[in-house]
Amino acid sequence: MRYLFAVLLFLNVGCDAQQKPIKKIATECSEADLKASLYHLASKEMKGRLMGSHEDTLASLFIIDRFKKEGIAGAYDGGRSYLQAITVQRQYDNASLTIGTKVRQQLDGWELFPFKPISLKNAGVVVTDHTDAAAFMKDILAMNVSGKAVVIDLGLFQRNTEQAVNALMKKLKAADAKVLVFGSPGIIDRVEEQKSTAYLPKYKLPFYFEPEEQILPNLYLTPERFDELLSTGLTNTTPGKHYADLKSGIDLSVDITYKPEQAPNVIGVLKGTDSKLPAIILSAHHDHDGPKGDEINYGAVDNASGVAAIMQIATMLNKAAKQGLRPKRTIIFASFTGEERGLLGAQWYADHPLLPLSKTHAILNIDQLGRTDTLHGNKSKDSVNYAYILVKDSVKRGLRNALYKANEVIPKLVLDKYYEDPRYERRRLLGSDQYPFHIKGVPFIRIDCGFSRDYHQVTDTPDKINYPLLKRQTQLAFLTLWNLAN
């Protein structure tokens, strides 16, 4: 018993001996350095760091220079190379809808979901006004929907059970209907939203972002396009009958091709003192949305802030190393590209990891720091002293404890669990680079500040960052990382 007590006392003293200098190093987290890094990454010269652009490479080289300075080795070529080239499939598409003699390009009053290849030439159109799914089912054979588009009242979905509607859709597909057509005022806003981001390149997405397979493709029309469709006139109308054919058909064409492109992840390594222990990944994404016409999506909070934080953490770990303090676990520094285009860089790394993910203890992902979001603004004195957290640790590796213990040391932030509420969690879970690791079983912590008013706007500029808050949130990330690594 005395021996066990002595061992425990020795371990506790050793831990305490490390915590005091680590706390001091955390207090030296440089607000000025964070600001300088962020201003550089979100500068005009960086042009918004669009994935695969020259500026994406410039940002990567900037991060590499900092890693070298702070003793973070390259992950490849014997420590000399930091670049992990990811290969992505750029999507090129051509889509048109012809009603009568008018050819409408994609988003000109219409949208197809899911957006997948289709080719209809002068396809007949059956217009229905059923409100009851069972009655519709009885009429399907008489309608002769084979090879045709079928116009359905959206009210049918609202007035019938999901089970009844799905049964109806399956019967339409079995009868060889090709597409369902809906007219909705709501599609106007949807189309305008899609137009606002149409300048951004599209890529083949990871499987989890693919839309759920529809029983039939859905063609959504704005009221203007819907009126155009119906204006061609009906034929074979009979009183009391709930369906009729349009006098003219439609053409619907979607052609999609892919071309491979490459972009850079930046991967660095700080070796731990115990190579047998599973590693920790510290991640942030450096890409954003690039230029928008004559303007720039600067991406200051999203996510120059997170990259500035991991570079500052590299500095603090270098200070610790100079005092003889090194983490037990190896720490992999990952600055991913392609987050904005669909978590492409993180997914590539998760599929091509430096160390097997089975030997990865956890990932700590930082995405957006240093702003007050729309939920916290003007609420209380704590509204500028918080961080959102999302923790997934089903295998119980102590992630939440590591986070909360870190918060007790210096930053003492309000750790907001709003996005751990099942009602709001999904967007947060899928919305950043921890997700490709989560689906492969790697526990994670995500730290962020939420969605500011300037989220994905050209107004997301460095002057709007709350740098004292960014410093405290960076301290939280550093101390959490130290706890995880030890």
Automatic annotation (TrEMBL):
Q: Which SUPFAM superfamilies match?
A: Zn-dependent exopeptidases
* GO annotation (BP), single: proteolysis
Q: Where is the Peptidase M28 domain?
A: 265-477
GO MF entries: metalloexopeptidase activity
> What is a single Pfam family found in this protein's UniProt entry?
Peptidase_M28
Q: What is this protein called?
A: M28 family peptidase
Q: Which organism is it from?
A: Mucilaginibacter myungsuensis
